[in-house]
Amino acid sequence: MTTNVTITPSSVEGTIQAPPSKSYTHRAILAAGYADGATVRDALWSADTQATARAVDLFGGSVSREDDGTLTVEGFDGRPGVPADVIDCDNSGTTMRLVTATAALADGTTVLTGDSSLRSRPQGPLLEAIADLGGGAESTRGNGQAPLVVSGPIDGGEVAIPGDVSSQYITALLMAGVVTDEGIDVVLETELKSAPYVDVTLEVLADFGVDARATDEGFAVDGGQSYSPEGGSYAVPGDFSSISYPLAAGALAGADGVRIEGANPSAQGDTAIVDIVDRMGADVDWNRDAGVIEVSSAPLSGIEVSVEDTPDLLPTIATLGAIADGDTQIVNAEHVRYKETDRVSAMADELGKMGVETTEKRDSLTIHGGESDLEGATVAGRGDHRIIMSLALAGLVANGETTIEGADHVDVSFPGFFEALEGLGVELERAE
Question: What quaternary arrangement does the UniProt entry report (predicted)?
């Protein structure tokens, strides 16, 4: 059942706990699957991460969730079995990329699919890499998109792959390479986009006792290693992609301040949102030792921001730009078009319905905040959690009510998003 949410302009104040990181949770669940087992604490249990858990189950492990939210994972100990069913990754691109490489380790054939959005996203470079490593990897439609058919096992080796389509290809190969005989040496053919996400992978691998490293040409991991976190347990940090929404809410409508707890430093590139909000003029303070961010609203000014390494921040920045004085230029953004939806066009179109002037180019989006009056409107969530949450922020400061169609898709990364807004004082209504 599709849910529409109507936001009434509201001020926000209070304290919010940062949701756990989706990126870290995906990697931790799969790393625990590659191990003989582990406990994953503070995990995000969302539609996307549940897709990764289901894949671990199908490869011969099991993931169970305790009453306190802790995940108990029984792993397949580096030797994934051939799944007894198709792996349905639903809407999760991270799941599909990461477990496609896992499938290449199984001694047999795995079929992977997903929803209509996921079946439109590019997987070709990863399929080619698996084939170059001696596996079988095909798109059923021959277009580099799911459904995918993957056969193994691969033993490892050196492989070349582009770095400017998705960093998840590199993550997938490194995680699988750990348990191969030879290891995997990834040579980047083009400049790496979204580089901090590979840093996240290296951080999680290190926490699971695995040695992987950057090289002059890319990244490498030795084979014959095993996944084994210290004490058999791993704790997921807070998610800065999700933190960007209450942080931006405070910058837009938090005259009395918003306090965000659980904002501990990590390798996440999206920590950049703290600096971006500060540069635009909001009053923000991040106590890194305590993991606390305090933010309150102030007049915002447009700036130029590169999202080369932080693609998930584009919708949030675009909404901030709609309120800011002057132009906000979001550059190095072409790879943001290959997410759950084309987020560059989606933000231009949906903010346009609210009276925001934009200039869209292939690699950039400019928000003309000084030429725009933000008006309440009915906007489409586009089946994309980040579009929905960013448009909800716009609704806080628009003139009149804003209705977001298909708002239930926030479950992908921030299941309690609208409840969190209500906790900060936002007036909203849900309708099915």
Answer: Monomer.
Instruction: Give me the architecture of the 22-235 domain, per CATH.
Output: Alpha-beta prism (3.65)
- pLDDT tens by residue, 178-210: 999 999 999 999 999 889 999 999 999 999 999
Q: What are residue 329's DSSP bridge partners?
A: 304, 366
**Distant-in-sequence, close-in-space partners of 174: CB < 8 Å, separation ≥ 6:** 184, 186, 198, 201, 202, 205, 212, 219, 221
Is 194 among the annotated ligand-binding positions?
Answer: yes
Instruction: Give the whole-angstrom CA distance, residue 300 versus residue 393.
Output: 15
Superfamily of domain 4-19+238-431: Enolpyruvate transferase domain (3.65.10.10)
**Residues with active-site annotation:** 312
Residue 312 among known ligand-binding residues: yes
pTM of the model: 0.86
By CB atoms closer than 10 A (0-12, 13-18, 19+), residue 38 is buried
19-56 pLDDT tens trace: 899 999 999 999 999 999 999 999 999 999 999 999 99
